[in-house]
């Protein structure tokens, strides 16, 4: 029973009590417009975090930029402080649009899930509006996590790693940028329709996997001795990637275009190198499960 407990309204302005022991009213008023981020804080949040913590958050200039966890949009209008408490004791503090969620404490009865990464690659022969073609190795970093802000933070770390490697953000599929950093690539056929592709930057391995390689893509890459590596998080669902080089490729193209518009696509150029030194290793990795002359069963 809560009785006639008053429902919390707009939070009262918070003031730090000085170490001299004087009342906060004796101090000069705090200029929140100049020194703090105007954040709406409910009494429940103050009880969980403490007034001093809330004031430090308000004074942190780094909090002026955030992504709302409810609508995935940048700051705009009033901002509220939301605390998420999980059943395992973890508490997460997030900023949100006050119109998306008022300041409150959310208690979640499920623990956060582990981050899970899956990398899917597609050899895509892209055609521009001018009629030219480009051989693209589309490397999609798929992240699964709950709550979803953890997946978004993992995607941001992946983007920073790509940028540090020399990748450049894509702004248009018709005019792919030309990064100055060159990657090296080894391409070794392992069947009539697939090849093992290794892409590296200096001593760091950027991609290593078996990929279905259509003949037109392979001819284009061998003719130019280069191909484009486009990578990012959530570029295209796996089901659509299988249609990249078919007559039903429009949905795949639309998905990649949306990723480019959202700033999630990064590109670099990989130069094909001789594969003689890596062929024995690759052949050893792909030894048939049943060696020649031995029957299965």
Structural class label: alpha/beta
Task: Output mean pLDDT.
Answer: 76
- How much helical structure, as a percent, in the residues? 10-25%
| Dominant shape | elongated
Q: How far apart are the first and last residues' alpha carbons, in Å?
A: 71 Å
H-E string: HEHHEEEEEHEEEEHEHHEH
Proportion of beta-strand residues: 25-35%
Unreliable residue stretches: 1-36, 276-297
Let me know the number of strands: 12
Largest sheet: 8 strands, mixed
CA-atom Rg in angstroms: 27 Å
The total count of helices amounts to 8
Topology diagram in text:
Blueprint: H1 32-35, E1 39-40, H2 43-49, H3 51-58, E2 79-86, E3 91-97, E4 105-108, E5 116-127, E6 133-144, H4 148-165, E7 168-169, E8 182-189, E9 194-201, E10 204-212, H5 215-224, E11 226-233, H6 238-241, H7 250-261, E12 265-272, H8 279-285
Parallel strand pairs: 1-2, 2-4, 6-11, 8-12
Antiparallel strand pairs: 2-3, 5-6, 7-12, 8-9, 9-10, 11-12
């Amino acid at each position: 029973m809560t009785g006639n407990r008053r429902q919390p309204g707009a939070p009262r302005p918070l003031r730090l009590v000085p170490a001299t022991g004087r009342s906060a009213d004796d101090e000069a008023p705090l200029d929140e417009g100049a020194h703090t981020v105007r954040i709406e804080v409910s009494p429940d949040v103050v009880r969980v975090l403490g007034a001093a913590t809330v004031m430090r958050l308000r004074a942190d200039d780094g909090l002026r930029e955030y992504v709302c966890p409810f609508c995935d949009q940048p700051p705009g209008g009033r901002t509220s402080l939301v605390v998420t408490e999980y059943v395992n004791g973890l508490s997460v503090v997030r900023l949100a649009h006050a119109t998306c969620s008022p300041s409150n404490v959310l208690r979640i009865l499920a623990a956060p899930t582990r981050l899970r990464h899956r990398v899917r690659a597609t050899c895509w022969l892209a055609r521009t509006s001018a009629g030219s073609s480009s051989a693209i190795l589309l490397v999609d970093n798929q992240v699964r996590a709950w709550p979803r802000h953890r997946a978004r933070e993992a995607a941001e770390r992946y983007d920073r790693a790509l940028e540090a490697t020399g990748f450049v953000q894509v702004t248009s599929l018709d005019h792919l940028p030309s990064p100055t950093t060159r990657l090296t690539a080894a391409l070794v056929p392992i069947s009539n329709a697939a090849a093992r592709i290794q892409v590296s930057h200096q001593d760091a391995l950027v991609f290593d996997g078996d990929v279905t390689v259509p003949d037109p893509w392979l001819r284009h890459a061998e003719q130019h001795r280069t191909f484009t590596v486009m990578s990012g998080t959530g570029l295209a669902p796996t089901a659509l990637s299988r249609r990249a080089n078919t007559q039903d490729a429009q949905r795949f193209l639309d998905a990649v275009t949306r990723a480019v518009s959202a700033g999630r696509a990064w590109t670099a150029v990989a130069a094909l190198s001789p594969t003689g030194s890596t062929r024995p290793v690759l052949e050893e990795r792909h030894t048939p499960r049943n060696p020649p002359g031995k029957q299965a069963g």
